[in-house]
Prior knowledge:
Layout: H1 12-15, H2 18-25, E1 50-56, E2 62-68, E3 126-130, E4 133-139, H3 146-158, H4 164-169, E5 173-174, E6 182-185, H5 192-199, E7 204-207, E8 214-219, E9 222-227
Parallel strand pairs: 6-7
Antiparallel strand pairs: 1-2, 3-4, 4-8, 5-6, 8-9
Amino acid sequence: xxxxxxxxxxxVSELMDSTYLAExxxxxxxxxxxxxxxxxxxxxxxxxxxxxxxxxxxxxNAVAVTTTLNDSFxxxxxxxxxxxxxxNEMDDFSIKPGFRNLFGLTGGKANAIExxxxxxxxxxxxxxxxxxxxxxxLGSPGGSRIITTVFQVILxxxxxxMTLPDAVSAPRFxxxxxxxxxxxxxxxxxxxxxxxxxQMNYFLIPVESMGRVNAILVNGSTLAGAADPRGxxxxxxx
Length: 238
């Protein structure tokens, strides 16, 4: 069902239904992974061609922006007289069912190339409200790892009661189904945690870093900003 809903019937209400979700999780095992859909290693180099920034003004207007060239130097085409590259987001379409893109993501018919259609994207600029008021603004670059990166930071703040800098700095991991591989930040994650995952039959691949989150958290009358130490990002107030 992953595709542009203007071109492919995506049953959103059914997919979000609590009864359906309960049925899907019934056979989930916390102590052993389900046999993988596909095995093997995708040798992917994810260059820093995506940028995210978060902004909140004095009136609590908020903007979360993620913009990308996708691959290194995008389509390698510079617009004459402008000095900027065109992206190669066509890679986020499914060239054919079962074919992997630059980030190892496997697509299907729902994301097939059609004129005027929006391709899938992992970009996840996020604005979260609490009790009807602005609460949290964040996002990240990172290709297919963006969704898990942003989600883990949200969980760190809301579920784990971390401060914003700690939530952004905390170690991360990523699994996208295909390949059946758990990527994890080494040496941020190591030791007993890795051994426990091996016992559960996870296939583990270490990576140096994952994502670069820039976030703003609203705490009453104050704003807290955090820039990811994994990059050359920065936080500033005015």
